[in-house]
Amino acid sequence: MPETRTYGRRRRQLPTTSSTEQAGFEVGKREAVSGRVVSTGSGGQTQMAGWDAMEKTASASGSDMYLKVDDKPLVIKIVGDGPFDVYNSHWIDEIEDGSKSVRCWGTPDCPLCQIGDKAKRFSACFDVISMEDPATPVLKVWEAGIKIARQLKDIATDGKRGPLNRADLYFTIKKEQKKKSVEYTLERVKERDLYEEYDVEPLTEEALDAFVAEAHQWGDVVKEKLDEEAMAEVVDLVMED
Ligand SMILES: [Zn+2]
């Protein structure tokens, strides 16, 4: 899609309330990432800023693509009217190098299913705009489990509460660590209550359009299936045990 290509240019100008604030943020970030030397004030110089740059650079890499939910309600806006990808994963403890979670092929010929391993983890992937830093909204992939995905489906298919990407509809999501499990809580927030309840200014129409242009389409995949060779290696690992 051509819009997706030109979007990288537009992203830098994404405003929520003020485009100058946004520009200032970007400039500041770039300087920090370059790890410039900061004077200690005692005549010497230090490269302590490099550590800060290291963390910022690391968090800007691929692992940061996913929405991170914690115990404080996080304001998000869902971009599409449904998940763009849905799958189950096998959890392979024997994998020491790399992700232990392996996408099930979802077909009768999935090698892990064939050796009797059950794909126990369900994921539904949604594009969401994280308003964690309200001045700098970011597009993230939210990997929701079955419980939350069902709640979202109920809202999506309800003529009065849905669709998920209704212009005036935002959500908050938080998680709570229980004794044996993690519990997620989803709440709908109307745009008109956003500022009062969460100190978050709604997105401008322009910003929202830009995110929509960058969003995934149904059938896009962020967690790739392993190919036959890699899958055979995983099966070997499990069988060796
Ligand atoms: Zn499988």
Description of the structure:
By secondary structure, this protein is α+β, with helices and mostly antiparallel strands. It folds into two domains: 1-60, no CATH class; 63-240, no CATH class. The chain is built from eight helices and nine strands. The protein has helices spanning 2-11, 19-33, 49-59, 111-114, 146-156, 191-198, 205-214, 228-240, and strands at residues 38-39, 45-46, 74-78, 85-91, 101-103, 121-130, 138-144, 169-177, 182-190. The strands form two sheets. Strands 3, 4, 5, 6, 7, 8 and 9 form a seven-stranded antiparallel sheet that branches. A two-stranded antiparallel sheet has the order 1-2. Helix 1 crosses helix 7 (205-214). The radius of gyration is 21 Å and the shape is globular. 20% of the residues are buried. The model is unreliable at 1-42 (pLDDT under 50). Bound molecules: zinc ion (ZN). Zinc ion (ZN) binds at residues 90, 104-105, 110, 112-113, 119. The site of zinc ion has 7 residues, from helix 4.
